[in-house]
Amino acid sequence: MTGTGTHLGMPAFPSAAREAVRDDVLRANLRHATRTIRDKRARAVAELEDWDRLRAAGKAVKDHTLRHLDRYLLELEASVTAAGGTVHWAADADEANRIVTDLVRATGEREVVKVKSMATQEIGLNEALEAAGIAAYETDLAELIVQLGRDRPSHILVPAIHRNRGEIRDIFRTEMGSWGRPAPDGLGDDPRELAEAARLHLREKFLRAKVAVSGANFMVAETGTMVVFESEGNGRMCLTLPETLISVVGIEKVVPTFRDLEIFLQTLPRSSTAERMNPYTTMWTGTTDGDGPSAFHLVLLDNGRTDTLADEVGRQALRCIRCSACLNVCPVYERAGGHAYGSVYPGPIGAILSPQLRGTGSEIDASLPYASTLCGACYEVCPVAIDIPEALVHLRERVVQGGPVTRDGIRVRIRPAHGHTAERAAMRAARLLLNHADWPAALRAGERLLARARRLAPRRLPGPGRAWTDARELPPVPAQSFRDWWTTRERETPQ
Predict the structure, then answer these.
(1) Pairing between strand 254-255 and 218-220?
(2) Distance (Å, rounded) from C-alpha 402 to C-alpha 421?
(3) Which of 204, 222, 216 is nearest to 282 (CA)?
(4) Quick one: DSSP state of residue 416?
(5) Which of 63, 94, 7 is nearest to 408 (CA)?
(6) Each residue's pLDDT tens digit, 205-215
(7) What is the DSSP letter of 276?
(8) Distance between CA 193 and CA 173 in Å, rounded?
């Protein structure tokens, strides 16, 4: 498994995507899976006449919470503590990994089971635990496939979406034995056989484990309740059987009251798995004698979220409830797959979330805001109305301008991505023109000069633009400029 390090050494998105689109098997797997999921989701959402109102309500709850995040986090801490839990605050990935590692060591155990948690992938917890001599076993089926295959997740909801049944069968046959119970002899690629093999493999780990690590979809400030949505029941085994439970959760996952969950209990299942109700929704509040883990620790993770919160446009990414609907409708994701994004958060939401959490100091992070056609499909399906195209344009502006951004309390410069030299030159030229003392006259002079060169307009673009015109024709140049047309129209129109 991999965490924040997945992007290190990876090329910028255009290069990674170029390689991905050449993989016919990958494209076929993605095309089949994303189209199936989005068609089912569309039918599930259409059943609710008040979907738009639920969407607006979810947005309102999230926006309100983010505006008052400091207050609700303190309320959450008090509620969790009163219920018998212990709260830890982690400013970054290193601190979170150190806290979890020390908590596991304190139990004397050398292995943990995990229920799907993107926050632990984000911080690279598995690698940190491995370095400390602690084995971490993923129990979500898709995460198990990724871990056994020594792979990286490529989707928020279905991390192994890039694998087909035959590939999963081969992974189980060759790798299960080195991680625990081996796959049954003669294992085929029927989904029921694969699920049974995973169940048998995981059962011994559930019964043996004394420590579990989880994430959470939501945290209720009012009661200190943690909420996990999942479809298999493996998460519930993790959350109830071990003696110690450690939950690593991003600070943006808090909601004010238990009643607020009503909205997301309807919108999240329909947007993610296209189900009316989530098969397994597990909630726990602190500890209770004789029921569930005897020790509960909550690690509240910042890791760039506070910096993101300070951006009035970019902060809407923190509304995300990780449903993955935006990935399933994105034409770029469908063709390039999740690995090209170089982050645990792929697709449209990853293109705006990762550059804010990690900064744009690497080529891949600076290129992510450009990993989109700006078609707007992601905004249309988002259950909390995140305007991803708006955020993408905003981040592109920051990258091009090399504007300031805060990281760890230090003001640094964003390094522009390679390949945007012409765009930066055009922006500088526009700035010089608009700052000119008599810019309307300068603009008219420039237009007249360009009008005289109308006959020199090429049929194909030169340089890098040639690839674009290989499959498209440039629009014809109008016979006259808009300014000339308007002047003529005004002259000929009766007053």
Answers:
(1) parallel
(2) 12
(3) 216
(4) P
(5) 94
(6) 999 999 999 99
(7) S
(8) 12
Lowest mean pLDDT across 92-101, 104-113, 141-150, 245-254: 141-150
In sign, the C-alpha dihedral spanning 190, 194, 200, 206 is: negative
| Rounded Cα–Cα distance for residues 101 and 330 (Å) | 37
Tell me how far apart the alpha carbons of residues 21 and 33 are, in angstroms, rounded to a whole number.
16
Cβ proximity of 341 and 334 under 8 Å: no
Dist. CA 21–CA 335, nearest whole Å: 6
Joined together, the tokens standing for residue 108 give 């004397």
Give residue 196's Cα distance to chain centre: 30
Sign of CA dihedral 207, 211, 216, 219: positive
* Exposed / middle / buried, residue 390 (Cβ in 10 Å: 0-12, 13-18, 19+): middle
3-state helix, strand, coil in the chain (%, to 5): 55, 10, 35
Helix (H) or strand (E) holding 248: strand 244-250
Class of residue 453 by CB neighbours under 10 A (exposed 0-12, middle 13-18, buried 19+): exposed
CB-facing half-sphere around the CA of 79: CA atoms within 13 A? 21
CA atoms within 13 A on the CB side of 182: 8
Residue 402 structure tokens: 């090399």
CB 371 within 8 A of CB 17: yes
Q: What residues are paired with 254 via a beta bridge?
A: 219
**CA quadruple 163, 167, 172, 175: dihedral, nearest 10:** -90
Distance CA 373, CA 391 (A): 13
What does the alpha-carbon distance between residue 108 and residue 125 come to, in Å, rounded to a whole number?
A: 18
Residue 37 has pLDDT above 80, yes or no: yes
User: Given pLDDT bands bounded at 50, 70 and 90, which one contains residue 270?
Assistant: very high
Tokens 């110690």 label which residue? Answer: 244
89 Cβ contact list (under 8 Å, min separation 6): 299, 300, 302
Structure tokens at 284: 């726990």
* Residues forming beta bridges with residue 404, ordered by sequence position: 413
Beta-carbon-side half-sphere exposure of residue 199 (alpha carbons within 13 Å)? 8
Our CA dihedral for 429, 434, 440, 445, rounded to 10 degrees, sits at -10
Tell me how far apart the alpha carbons of residues 338 and 5 are, in angstroms, rounded to a whole number.
15
Q: Within 13 Å of residue 15, how many CA atoms lie on the same side as its CB?
A: 12
User: What SS3 state is found at 266?
Assistant: helix
**Angle at alpha carbon of residue 89, lines to 88 and 94, rounded to 5°:** 105
pLDDT in tens, 140-166: 999 999 999 999 888 998 888 889 999
d(CA 250, CA 299): 8
* pTM: predicted TM-score of the whole model, two decimal places: 0.82
